[in-house]
Amino acid sequence: MSEKRLLVVDDEPEFGDLVARVATDLGYETRVTTNGRDFQNAFHELQPTLVVLDMVMPEMDGNELVLWLMEQRYAADLIIITGYSPEYAKDARLLAEFKGLHSVTTLTKPIRLAKLREALGS
Questions:
Q1: What is the CATH number of domain 5-121?
Q2: How many CB atoms lie within 10 A of CB 14?
Q3: What is the pTM of this model?
Q4: Looking at the predicted structure, is the pLDDT value of residue 95 above 60?
């Protein structure tokens, strides 16, 4: 298993694939999911060192997944992304930090490739 493992959840498969391509170039083993249930299943298999989480998705949103991650005692890095109001990502970051996660980055779609590389590289 690679030292750098990225798990992406975004209901837009094209965006998830873009993140995965950039991350793979940076040395990550990557897995992309498009919904919360698949994310939860992949989480246990991959044991990610970094999660990229879309905020607005059908069925299970980003806040629900942040709370679930905290229940799993996830303590690695988290990147929260939204294509809607930046306040969604900010609120989720505050929730994650309140629950004890300290390495949280927020990004807004559309994302410049340089900004995505910077977030993944940190």
A1: 3.40.50.2300
A2: 7
A3: 0.91
A4: yes
Residues 6 or more apart whose Cβ sits within 8 Å of residue 3:
49
Please, what's the b/e burial string for 79-112 (b: 16 or more CB within 10 A of its CB; e: otherwise)?
bbbbbeeeebbebbbebbeeeebeebbbbbeebe
Q: Which two tokens stand for residue 73?
A: 């005692």
* Whether residue 53 has pLDDT greater than 60: yes
The average confidence (pLDDT) of the chain is 91
- What is the share, in percent, of the chain residues with pLDDT greater than 70? 98
Cis peptide before 58 (omega within 30 of 0): no
Question: What are the phi and psi torsion angles at 57 (to 5°)?
Answer: -140, 155
Name residue 78's amino acid: L
Sheet holding 5-9, edge to edge: 29-33, 5-9, 50-54, 77-82, 104-108
The residues spanned by each domain of the chain are: 5-121
